[in-house]
Write a structure and sequence with these properties.
Layout: E1 2-7, E2 12-17, E3 54-57, E4 80-82, E5 85-91, H1 105-123, E6 130-137, E7 149-155, H2 160-176, H3 180-191, E8 195-198, E9 202-205, E10 216-220, H4 232-252, E11 259-264, E12 279-283, H5 297-302, H6 311-319
Antiparallel strand pairs: 1-2, 1-4, 3-5, 5-7, 6-7, 6-11, 8-9, 9-10, 10-12, 11-12
């Protein structure tokens, strides 16, 4: 069962997906459903002995192309509607113990093209308003499968955090005639203290307003609304920056750093929005090697993050780690 329930206080949809309680939870490596199927072995989602990348429909999706009817009736105050959409899984490697940080720059160029293909394919569906590409990595994030993979959610509506960002972009453009994110990039590059790595086309920095101690954002320096407008040179430059950030994260404490990685780009609802600007945001949950940044009362209840560190200091730590692009 999967449905959307409206929260009239916060004015946002909440997904109720009870079937996800039954999804596979941290199986032994020999029974990982995302590894290639071995001859005579446990049958997996990939009936091949190896692969580069694989994309398939999530078996425990939050959204469905043909969703079941809601379990309850809504009201004018609290409407309910079917959870229409798509959920896909993207496998990064046939190696169970690999991570995205192990990928070569050439691998990441190919992955960028996979992401672009899915963004465009899903975004062409008439009932898909936003294609959200993301990765949850590490037990600290709550992953249920350790095999290296990301996910793609095709929303039938604009998610609330994206909607809020769009409102800010629109207000800034109407007031200045400029893209808000282009101004953010110009500010961070000119200041320089929070820049972690950059090349000709992309820059990675710990934002001035970072909520997590080692939060890093990768921005296109030019005004690129989405993966759809990337040139081959953009693909290469983005892969170089992504590769550098992933390697720096793992070099920070000589461990595979857990994180949430989210990709923000233009909605696919057909509405022209001059403020849309491609970016990738990383939210690592650790504030030290042993200490988590918990989303406690102030963050979860009031919506105000408290960062126990200075972005300038954390950016300096990451900038000095290999690989260095400057």
């Amino acid at each position: 069962m999967s449905e959307l329930r409206w929260n009239p206080v916060m004015r946002e949809w909440v997904v109720t997906a009870t079937h996800r309680q039954d999804r596979t939870f941290l199986p032994p490596p020999d029974y990982c459903p995302l590894c290639p199927t071995k001859p005579g072995g446990f049958p997996t989602e990939v009936p091949e002995e190896t692969y580069e990348f694989v994309v398939f429909d999530n078996k425990f999706p939050s959204f469905h192309p043909v969703p079941p009817p809601p379990a309850v009736e809504g009201s004018d105050l609290m409407p309910v509607r079917p959870a229409k959409g798509r959920c896909e899984v993207v496998l990064y490697s046939p190696r169970h113990d690999a991570t995205l940080a192990d990928a070569s720059q050439q691998d990441l160029i190919r992955l960028t093209r996979v992401w672009r293909d899915r963004y465009e394919h899903l975004g062409q569906e008439t009932d898909v308003d936003y294609v959200f590409i993301f990765e949850n990595k590490g037990t600290a994030i709550g992953v249920t499968l350790h095999h290296p993979h990301g996910q793609i959610y095709a929303f039938s509506y604009i998610p609330p955090r994206i909607e809020r960002s769009i409102a800010s972009e629109t207000a800034h453009f109407e007031a200045t005639g400029r893209c808000l994110h282009c101004d953010v990039v110009a500010f961070e590059v000119a200041d320089g203290r929070r820049v972690v790595a950059q090349n000709e086309r992309f820059v990675a920095f710990v934002p001035f307003y970072a909520r997590y101690p080692y939060e890093v954002h990768i921005y296109a320096k030019g005004h690129l609304p989405s993966l759809s407008v990337f040139t081959p040179s953009d693909d290469e430059s983005f892969a170089e920056i992504l590769h550098a950030v992933l390697r720096k994260y793992d070099a920070l404490w000589a461990m595979s750093l857990p994180y949430m990685m989210v990709m923000q780009q233009a909605p696919t609802d057909g509405v022209r929005r001059p403020g849309s600007h491609f970016r990738v945001e990383f939210y690592p949950p650790l504030r030290t090697r042993e200490k988590l940044k918990y989303l406690a009362g102030c963050e979860s209840g009031a919506g105000t993050f408290i960062n126990d560190t200075l972005p300038e200091e954390k950016a300096s730590e990451l900038r000095e780690l290999a690989p260095r692009l400057e």
